[in-house]
Amino acid sequence: MIENKVVSLEERAQDEAKIYLEELLSEGARKMLQTAIENEVLEYLEAHRERHTDAGQRLIVRNGHHPERELVTGGWPDKGSSTADSPSRWAEV
Predict the structure, then answer these.
(1) What are the pLDDT digits (tens) for 10-31?
(2) 23, 36, 43, 68: which sits with the fewest CB atoms below 10 Å from its CB?
(3) Structural domain spans, the chain
(4) Left (φ > 0), alpha (ψ -120 to 50) or beta: where does 77 sit?
């Protein structure tokens, strides 16, 4: 038996819309979580604003931010990483 693998234009449009919607929802959830965490940090810092060391410095401070980066899960490390678990090292074993 020959299996029919032809996809109609309507099915393809629905699949593409679904992918777009999933990406949109994922981005919205990420932004909501980021905002919630940021607000929690600010509340914590404000609650402990009056705490100081014996030298008069604030006891609890924020260290700053790192630039946003894209995380890859389940894939190989980037070309520039120096990890012992790279495919080239596996080939040596």
Answers:
(1) 888 888 888 888 999 999 999 9
(2) 68
(3) 1-61
(4) beta
